[in-house]
Amino acid sequence: MMANTSRSRSGNSSSRSSKTGSSRKNTRSASSRSTSRRTSAPVQAPQNPDSAFKRLASSKAAMPLIFIASVILIVGIDLLISWNQYSLFFKILGVEILIAVIVWTVMTLVFSRKKQKEPDSEYIEDEE
Length: 128
Known about the structure:
- The protein is mainly α and 128 residues long.
- It is built from four helices and no strands.
- 83% of the residues lie in helices and 0% in strands.
- The protein is flat.
- The model has no long low-confidence stretch (mean pLDDT 76).
């Protein structure tokens, strides 16, 4: 019988301590919750991948990146066409470089003439 009473007493004491401990925890957590309420920062919507691409395209780094990517693409295509025949690779690459120089020269001449004509036309319109 003693074993039963000791068990019941220990059981009662543990249940009492758990009840008082939980009530203490509840009062502490409730008081800490009321004193430490913080507002969270506003959640921003995720940005579209298009906007990141558009920002890159409008930056100063866009032209060098496009140039480097196009050179790598052209040299890669030339290597695939030539199948490791280096004389053919350099002939194709030489022709492409000549074409690029001719196109660049023509584009430079065309755009420089347009820039020269634009200020004159604006000046004439102001006089009238």
